[in-house]
Design goal:
Shape: globular
Number of domains: 1
Low-confidence stretches: 186-191, 313-322
Number of strands: 0
Number of helices: 15
Mean pLDDT: 85
Order of helices and strands: HHHHHHHHHHHHHHH
Distance between the termini: 67 Å
Structural class: mainly alpha
Helix content: over 70%
């Protein structure tokens, strides 16, 4: 398709990797708990799901559901009438933002509102959020309140679809956590070092849903660069491959142990992205460079803080006793 198509693909790949750096960090935290088989599956079957299902088929299914069109009609729009396809996808944007924003905020809140969490990056704020973890189901309660508030304050035309999307995101997040917890508790009796079976499957699906929450908003934004669905899938798909390769690198290099605040920075970035997606329901649009920049700033600051403000153990430089 020529050098122009190659350039557009490279631009989309760079955008995807910029927006998904925090995704790679969170992925690595989950992937390190899974068996080698499921880690390999993440880079094989997972790549297929990320490229062809999430970035190509899923947007079409959403257009089918929201526009009431048949599969062949949507395929025809995507391949032969990209401007009309983009229009229909933009009409589905409230559903995408409500689902993705709710799911990402659930991840961020669940991480910080944890009474057993001992390591804190942003001092008082994270300690205060951690103490709130004493109250059961607080994260779900807060997100339900947010969903109710959104229902009564957004455009009435989107009331039902946005509420269903938000509740579906909460139900999916809770369901995957429950399945992982139930199967994980059973594996403890088997002395398993890594998650296998249904527990690993639950974590695998969690990673795929997380990837979808990040990428669907990017699919819509990609139409600002090109309306060619093939180029969009190629560029965003290449970015997805990079994110998964980076995830594997973070696992193998034990990066989360070297930079103890990196996970905190990634979850702050996820919280910001989830909030931005929900703000779009009120037609508050931030520049793409600012959205990507916020994530990179959070991760960069967390790495810098980990390197310069974490003191080594007092006996780190003492000679080893024979």
């Amino acid at each position: 398709m020529g050098l122009t198509a190659l350039w557009l693909t490279i631009v989309l790949t760079l955008l995807e990797t910029t927006f998904s750096a925090d995704n790679a960090v969170v992925n690595s935290k989950i992937l390190i708990t899974m068996s080698p088989f499921w880690q390999r599956l993440f880079m094989t079957a997972g790549i297929f799901i990320a490229v062809f299902v999430v970035r190509f088929a899923l947007p079409m299914l959403i257009v089918m559901a929201t526009a009431g069109l048949g599969f062949n009609e949507v395929i025809n729009l995507a391949m032969n009438h990209p401007a009309e396809y983009e229009h229909e996808l933009h009409k589905a944007e409230p559903v995408i933002n409500a689902f993705g924003g709710t799911f990402l905020l659930m991840i961020a809140l669940s991480y910080f509102i944890d009474y057993q969490k001992k390591t804190h990056w942003l001092g008082f704020l994270e300690r205060y959020l951690g103490r709130l973890g004493r109250f059961d189901n607080l994260t779900v309660f807060l997100m339900l309140l947010a969903s109710i508030m959104i229902y009564f304050t957004i455009d009435p035309a989107h009331h039902a679809t946005v509420l269903i999307a938000s509740i579906s995101a909460m139900a999916l997040h809770i369901g995957l956590e429950l399945l992982s917890a139930v199967m994980g508790s059973e594996e403890k009796h088997l002395a398993a070092k890594h998650k296998v079976g249904l527990a690993a499957f639950a974590s695998f699906m969690y990673l795929e849903v997380l990837d979808a929450s990040f990428s669907l908003d990017g699919v819509i934004g990609a139409f600002a660069i090109t309306s060619d669905v093939i180029i969009i899938m190629a560029g965003l798909g290449a970015g997805a491959v990079w994110v998964r390769a980076m995830t594997i690198h973070l696992v193998r290099s034990n990066t989360l142990q070297k930079y103890i605040f990196l996970e905190h920075g990634a979850h702050w970035a996820i919280g910001f992205l989830g909030t931005i997606m929900l703000l779009k329901l009120y037609h508050i649009e931030l520049p793409e460079w600012l959205i990507g920049g916020l994530g990179l700033i959070c991760i960069g600051a967390a790495i810098w803080w980990s390197k310069h403000h974490v003191k080594p153990p007092k006996d780190a430089h003492l000679p080893v006793q024979p």
